[in-house]
Amino acid sequence: MQTKSLVKTLLVAIPLSLVSALTLAAPQDELKRVEVSGKQSAAVRTDVKASCPSIAAVLQNKLSPIWGMHQETGVLRVEFTLDGDGVHGVKARGADTYRDGVRKAMRGLECNSGTTQPQTYAFNIHIVSPDSVHPGKQMAMLID
User: Fold this and answer.
1) What is the pLDDT of residues 90-105, one digit of tens each?
2) Is the per-residue pLDDT at 22 higher than 80?
3) 91 domain-assigned
């Protein structure tokens, strides 16, 4: 009886040992190679006032009438691409009331990045209520 049980144990143990030994003996350089490809995103520029010196005046002019109708404060995040042909791909997020006005103002903005290569810019517009520091203004706007 013990002989049969020993034989069964050996019949199971020997193949398992061989499989384990073969697995350990396999060369490690046979691991599957993974390739990753893609394009590194360009750095986003934030020096929008340097490249677009009239931006504050243009946005103030375009957004003041909207402020007059709604008088809503808010923050917008604006992103755009500037190349040799001008401003493209304007995206404005936040403060729904002002988004279309920002996009329209940006289309006519004159900018110069100093290169014809496409440059991505981003900035925030904070629209706040005017105060005594800005008398006569319909709204106050901060660009950062």
Assistant:
1) 999 998 999 999 999 9
2) no
3) yes
Position with higher pLDDT, 105 vs 31: 105
121: domain CATH number is 3.30.2420.10
Q: What is the 3-state secondary structure (H, E, C) of the chain?
A: CHHHHHHHHHHHHHHHHHHHHHHHHCCHHHCCCCCCCCCCCCCEECCHHHHCCCHHHHHHHHHHHHHHHHCCCEEEEEEEEEECCEEEEEEEECCHHHHHHHHHHHHCCCCCCCCCCCEEEEEEEEEECCCCCCCCCCCEEEEC
- Tally the domains of the chain: 1
Structural domain for 91, as ranges: 44-143
Task: Examine residue 77 and state whether it is found in any structural domain, yes or no.
Answer: yes
Rounded Cα distance between 74 and 65, Å, is 15
